[in-house]
Design goal:
The protein is 30% helix and 25% strand. The strands form 4 sheets. A 4-stranded antiparallel beta sheet has the order 2-3-1-13. The protein has a 4-stranded antiparallel beta sheet with strand order 7-4-10-11, covered by helices on one side. Strands 8-9-12 form a 3-stranded antiparallel beta sheet. With 272 residues, the chain is α+β, with helices and mostly antiparallel strands.
Length: 272
């Protein structure tokens, strides 16, 4: 047999053996590489949750294509933050988003994370006695920040009719992560240069008073300012579990949804 043909046959045999080896169950990977081979299973094989999200606005109120595209991108970022592989996020029509989460063990918590608008506000509670602020945790409040308003850090607002002044929003967040080094999980954040200046000026002028942390108009924490915070870094405490702290971090990293979303349909899919 000619040497060239023999070499071709040997290469073919090696290729067949390697292909069979890589196709076997529990194959650790390519022998000369440290990279592992993992099979990514979709919703039809591993099960999970499938949901349809829709803009939570009156039918006669238009939703711009740009807003829905931005909402779809934010939902996709939140899905990625949950650490799920082979997830699907697709816009469906003018007002809906289809989400498939293979392998998700807690569908309700995952969907709650995806649809929450996640508007974070740092709210001035300095007019309230410090000892009374903790009673407002979990309460829904009104603030002077809205869709068509901008925050003025030096603005003075009279707390008439329980409308509180927003000192700063989550738009000034530079980085957010879960901190597990403390006695209980907390969410650590770093501010942009502009946010750090606002934070420094406010905390320097209000030592001993409270700057509340509000998510979607619900008070989640009422920390007292013990000293000026000049480095643009802080933490959000709120009796978090690891899961709830991670969910909040995911929401804040991906930003606020430009339109509110509601779940119009969801179902748990078993592997077939």
């Amino acid at each position: 047999m000619p040497r060239k043909q023999l070499l071709t046959i040997i290469i073919i045999i090696v290729a067949i053996v390697l292909s069979v080896y890589l196709d076997l169950p529990n194959t650790p990977g390519i022998p000369w590489s440290s990279r592992k081979i993992q099979t990514r299973l979709g919703l039809d094989l591993v099960g999970g949750v499938q949901a349809l999200l829709e803009a939570d606005l009156p039918p006669d109120q238009p939703v711009t294509p740009e807003a829905m595209q931005a909402a779809t991108s934010i939902v996709e970022s939140r899905v990625n933050g949950l650490g799920l592989s082979e997830a699907v996020v697709q816009q469906a029509g003018d007002r809906r988003i289809v989400v498939e989460l293979p392998g998700e063990k807690d569908p309700e918590a995952a969907l709650a994370t995806l649809k929450q608008t996640a508007l974070l506000e740092f709210v001035d509670f300095t007019s309230i006695p410090v000892e009374s602020t903790s009673t407002l945790v979990g309460s829904t409040i009104q603030t002077d920040f809205g869709k068509n308003q901008t925050v003025q850090p030096t603005q003075t607002v009279t707390q008439t009719a329980q409308i509180y002044h927003t000192v700063m929003t989550g738009a000034d967040l530079k980085d957010v992560k879960v901190d597990l080094a403390a006695t209980e999980p907390q969410v650590a954040f770093e501010l942009t240069d502009q946010g750090a200046k606002i934070f420094r000026d406010f905390t320097s002028a209000h030592v001993g008073q409270v700057l509340a942390i509000v998510l979607d108009k619900v008070v989640i924490s009422t920390p007292r300012i013990d000293e000026p915070i000049t480095d643009g870094k802080g933490v959000i405490r709120g009796n978090f579990t690891v899961e709830s702290a991670n969910a909040l971090a995911v929401q804040l990293r991906s930003g606020s949804l430009p339109v509110p979303l509601k779940i119009v349909e969801s179902r748990t899919v078993g592997p077939t």
